[in-house]
Structures are given as structure tokens and as C-alpha cells.
Amino acid sequence: MKYKENINIVLYIFVVFILSSCIFLLYFKDKWLAIILVSCFFIYLILKRKIDLFIILTLFFLIPIINNIFYYNINLSNLEEVRIISLTNYGGTGEIKGRKFYLSGEFNDLKLGDKILANIELNKDINIEKGIIGEVKVDNYEKLKGDIRSKVYRLREDIFNNIKEKLGSRRAALITSMAFGYTEFLDREDTSNMKNLGVLHAVSVSGLHMVLIYSLLKKICGDKMAPIVAIVYVIFTGCATSTLRSYIMLLCLSLAVPFRRSYNPLSGLSLAGIIIILYKPYSIFEIGFQLSFLSTLGIILFNKKINKYLYKLPKSIREGTSISLSSQVFTFPFLILYFREFSLGFLLGNLILMPFINAIVILGNIMALTFNIKIIFNYLAFICYYFTVVLDLVSEKLIYILPKILYLNEIIAISYIILLITFYFYKKGYKNIIYFNLTIFVYAYFIFYSPFPKIEYYKDGVMSISFKGERSVVAIKDGVDLDKYKIISFAEKEYEDFKKVIINDKFEIEKINKDILIKSKYKTYLIQLSKKKNNYNYDIIDCKYSNYFKIIILDERILVFN
Q: Taking every annotated instance into account, which residue ranges of this chain make up the domain ComEC/Rec2-related protein (predicted)?
């Protein structure tokens, strides 16, 4: 009984860490709503007469708050060391003292992972969901000597270039992206095909990669050395959230036997979440964190049950099917909310393609280890070539026979979540929860009728406008797929050349260069999408780094949801 309580405490702490991080974000948007929500949670604990748990969880609730305050409150000098973590035409993203900043300036001679000593000017503009402190303008800089982290980036680049010389750029990108998440040169068509086949997770380092490599290391190095050597792979792949999560869970599993403890995957998952949130306070808002933990939770809770229902199938098909289906139980609505699309061929894609992908993952990592032994490296590259050829042939056939990717509106995701919540509490004995499903109709009313003017922006360069049953989509950029967004937004009209839209003779939505102007009789707002500075004398809503946002226009104000 004591063991079970300990597991529950770890799970409770993880839930409290999630709640605390969300409250910290919400506090910046609506202080009183944040206070009400956290009060309801702790009042519930008191009413349940869990005083000991109340005291413990109150202390743990404060830890992420303090951690976030420490992360976002930092003083910088005019001269700082900056790590380059992404590059674009207009700047990039960097790390200073372990914090993330947007960078502006010219970085033509720099590569990912490089470290510079720069004269900087900070414009503090906190974005909690992305862990961004603000924007740093770099006037001039001096490139510093490479450290371990930058050498890891260069090693991955060197491996890519060596494979490229032998197999070409495309196959080199496929092998290195699947093997250790080096996606910088991955072809858009390959990414699209992987998405259509439901195996996009294979080209970014996931828990699957960690399990494969860890299993291989156990056979080569033994149980004691495998956890130590595996941490090198975690660093080599860039410490992706899913890899860290998987490593921590595997480490808990390995330590359970020598410490004479039973391993519970739910407590291992919770502990991994606690450590990652402490390491990166903003990680909970990243899609990688959410999908990794939700898919693992689905596997923990439903994999064995689905496996039993499929007992008549051959073992390999049964296990592959149960893992694929169970991993989708909780990730399905989030995939729709983030991407507005879902692959109907994910099951066949995973069953048929993953054996080839797993082989490439293992061979690619052995190639990294034998990088300086050219005979072995070239031989492995030769084998990988034929695996990619087979992968191409099979993928081509699957794309031809499988249904096309399905475009879905957020109402599908919200309805699915409401049904899941209803089912859970109904099974717990709360029969009246069945009426909770009525909220689907309320939500659908606001989606289809939209009593207030509503604007939704999508990163592809499309904007949907809806008001009192009238819905339309407009193209902000050239060459966008308006048909896709007509399906997603249930739009009846489309405008390829958008300049100005008038809503109910009260509101005007106008395009100014790359930005959007919203005019009402009370106020004018500028939705900034461009990266350049502007001199407009309006209230500016900075959305230049947003992939998606929703705006609801009220009479005297507008509400923005990212």
C-alpha cells in the first residue's frame, strides 16, 4: 500500500508541476482567472481531507513558479556569450546564460552550435510559451573557440557531408534525420510523405530512437555501462525532450532491479516530466513535450488492453498495431489542434515502414561511431543506401493506395476531448457527467455561427474570417492552398487577392504590406506579422513569431489567443 501511495505522490507532483507552469503563464494573461483556478484545486484537496497531501503539494507548487521567475528575470551586460541554436534570413535564435532569445543581425559566417562573444542590445519581450526572454540585436561579434556542444554539431554536419559525397544530399538527409535527428537538409517532399504515412516522428529523435539505441547498448556494453554510454547519444541528438523522457524512464527501469524496487512506468513518466520541467521551465508548452508524454501515457494505459483484443493476430502485427493505436488515444486531438490534419494511413505506415526505419536508425548511429574508420563507414553507407531505396519504393506504393491526409477542424478535437472526459468520469460512477456532452453543441454554435467577428491566422499565410454564420478564407501570401483551409474552417468564400474586408459596416480588416490592420469605431490595432520594425501609431499586437493565433473582435477591445 505504501508503494502505491509513493507512486501516487510522484504523479500528483507531476500534475502540480503542470498546473503551476500553466498558472504562471495564465497569470500574465488574466491574473484573477489564474488565482481562481489554483484556489479551486487546493480547496478540492482540503475538502477531500488530504491535509498532508495539501501541505506537500503546496510546497511543490511553488517550485516551478520560483524556477520560472528565476528563468525569466535575468540581467545582461552589453557584452555576452551567445550560442546559435537556429538561423534564418533575418537572424535566428540564441542562448545566453541558458535562456532563449530571438537574434537580429547578420550571421553569414556562422553555423548552428557556434558560440560568439557579441555586443548586444536587449529588447525584453517575454514569450512564456516559447521560453523566449526577448529580442537581442547583435551589432558585432567575435567567434569563439568551439566547445563540446559545437563540436557535436560539427560532427553531425561532417557525417552528413561524408554520406552526401557517396549517396547524394537527399539520402544523406534521410539517414541522418532518422538516425540522430539532423533535419536541417531534409527535403520538403520527404517530410510531406512521412506526414501522409503517419511516420513523421521517425525523422525527429523520439523515444523510439532511445529505446532502440539503449537496447543495442545493453547487448554491447552490458546493463551497468548502457545508461552511462546512452547519455552520450542524448547529448549527440541535441537533448530532445522525447529523448530525455525516454532516457529517464529507461534509467528508472535499469535502477529498479539493483535497488530492489518494482518499476512502474507511470511513476517513471511522472519523474521524467518533473525533471524536464525543472531543466526547461517552458518545455510543457512545446508540442514535442506534449505529444511525447501523451503518446507514452496512452501506451502505458491502453497498450496491453488493445493487445489482448487482437490476440488472434500474429505477434509482430499485434504488438505493432496495439502500440500505434494506444499512442494515438491522447495525441489525436492535439495533432488536430496543432496541425489541423490527420493521417488515416498511420497504422499501415507504422507497421510496414518502421522495420526499415529502425534498421536505418541503428546503422546510422553505428556509422557515427565508426566515422574515422572509412572501410566500415563506407560499407554501412552502402547498406543504408539499399534500405533507403526499399523505403522509397514501399512509401511510393503506400501513398498510392492509402487515403489522402484528412483535414479537420478544431471542433473534432474539442468534441473528442469532451467525450474522453465524459467516459472517464462515467466509468468512475458519476452518471450525471453525461450532460457534460451538451458543451459540444455550445462550442459548435460559436464555431459555426460566431456571434462576434473572429479571425484565425495560419502560418502557411492564410487567414479565415467568420461572423454570424458567414465564413471566408483569404490568402495573405502567394501560392497557398486555399482549398485545404476552406475545409478546415468550413468557409464558403475564398479570396486570393486580399486587400480589405468590411464586417457588418463596423469593422475593417486591411492588409498593409505584410501586416494586418483591424479598425473599429473605437480603436485601431496592427497585427504585426513582418519581422521589420514599423512606425505605425497604432496599438501593436506582435504575432510575428506565431504559427497560429485567433482574434475575437468585441466592441471596445479585441481578444487574442495564441
A: 178-425
